[in-house]
UniProtKB/TrEMBL annotation:
Pfam families referenced in this protein's UniProt entry, alphabetically: Oxidored_FMN
Positions of the NADH:flavin oxidoreductase/NADH oxidase N-terminal domain: 5-321
Keywords assigned by UniProt, alphabetized: Flavoprotein, Oxidoreductase
One GO molecular-function entry: oxidoreductase activity
Domain of life: Bacteria
Name of protein: 2,4-dienoyl-CoA reductase
InterPro entries: Aldolase_TIM, NADH_flavin_oxidoreductase, OxRdtase_FMN_N
Length: 362
């Protein structure tokens, strides 16, 4: 396909269509207030993105419980007190012509006590001295995901994305290495996927037929098994439980190194599945319009822009103006990011990303 295909609209199962094939990935910026309220810096970031030509913009990971926090200054959606700031974010995105989604997040066993997190492991052996969640506690977390989705709807967002990647709680429950439970949320693949499915189904029931549901999935680390994740995804596709799958890959060209699918790209393991009307997109080192177009050829319906969107806020507009546009090479200076409109809080976060900000730059 050509770069021009990236600018064709894409219908979703529920709610309005995407105006093109560019989705802004959820990016942890750590620039919210300490209570999880959206800060002026969050609003500035969203305002910039709303003018940048994306079809759908996801917020950074937002906590569904105060104890589920994984980062300092993480955005929250666990309280009605967060609604005013969230509503302003949704309004800005809507005024720019894009669809909007809140990424719903709980850190699970990776919750950070230093910033108020309460580790919530699936198993008792994961975090020394911390017992595994009881069945009732799992159900509480499930219900708080659903309540957070309803809160996003009240704030005016078109949908949510359920964060099931990177060893956070839903990814943790999917992992046979991190989940040795004996109740209905552990053991078989079906049981380990139960929490994710109950959250997705509960959100659909609570938020109705016009609300959009995405699911972010990663495949690597944390004892996750590719064959099992493919099986779970196949069921979700077949039942059309979500509007879109967001494959969080470190590299969209990654190749499977062992097992059943050795030699295939990770992406192809999922694009080859029948997916009915569910849409599929991928993130992972997409730094040019040409690479984005290649991913459509490789079976994606849309692409998720992450680091490239930090480097150049209006990446879609740059690609539209120049099909051969490529992102600036990393690392960049802090001043480059500052001139582009990034807040000092966001820049400090990016210093923690390997090879992103030039060491020692001010």
């Amino acid at each position: 396909m050509s770069v021009s295909d990236l600018f064709k609209p894409l219908a979703l199962l529920h709610g309005p269509e995407m105006r093109n094939r560019f989705m802004m990935a959820p990016l942890t910026s750590q620039q919210s207030e300490y209570d999880g309220s959206a800060s002026e810096f969050d609003q500035l970031w969203i305002e910039q993105l709303s003018k940048s030509g994306y079809a759908l913009i996801q917020t950074s990971a937002a906590t569904v419980e105060s104890g589920g926090i994984g980062f300092e200054r993480q955005l929250g959606i666990h309280s009605d007190d967060h609604l005013p700031g969230l509503s302003k974010m949704a309004e800005n995105i809507r005024n720019g012509g894009a669809l909007s989604a809140v990424q719903l997040h709980h850190a699970g066993h990776r919750a950070v006590p230093a910033v108020g997190g309460i580790p919530a492991p699936a198993s008792g052996h994961t975090v020394p001295g911390v017992k595994g969640l009881t069945t009732e506690e799992v159900e509480r977390i499930r219900d708080n995901f659903i309540a957070a989705a309803k809160r996003a709807q009240l704030a005016g967002f078109d949908g949510i994305s359920v964060h099931g990647a990177f060893g956070w709680i839903l990814s943790e429950f999917l992992s046979p290495n991190l989940n040795d439970r004996k109740d209905r949320y552990g053991g078989s693949v079906e049981n380990r996927a139960r929490l994710t499915l109950e959250i997705i189904e509960g959100i659909r029931q609570a938020c109705g037929p016009d609300f959009q549901i995405g699911w972010r999935l990663s495949i690597e680390r944390y004892g996750l098994r590719l064959e099992e994740l493919r099986e779970i995804t196949a069921e979700i596709f077949d039942r059309e439980l979500i509007d879109y799958l967001d494959l969080a890959l470190w590299d969209s060209a990654q190749v499977v190194r062992e097992g059943t699918f050795k030699g295939k790209t990770l992406l192809s393991v999922f694009t080859e599945l029948p997916r009915k009307a569910v849409r599929l997109g991928a993130a992972g080192k997409i730094y040019s319009g040409q690479r984005a177009a290649e991913l459509l050829d490789e079976g994606c319906d849309f692409v998720l822009i992450a680091r490239a969107g930090i480097l150049q806020r209006d990446f879609p507009l740059q690609v539209k103006a120049n099909p051969f546009f490529e992102s600036p090479k990393m690392p960049v200076t802090a001043e480059y990011l500052r001139q582009g409109g990034l807040s000092e809080r966001f820049i400090e976060t990016m210093r923690g990303w390997q090879t992103f900000v030039r060491p020692g730059s001010r």
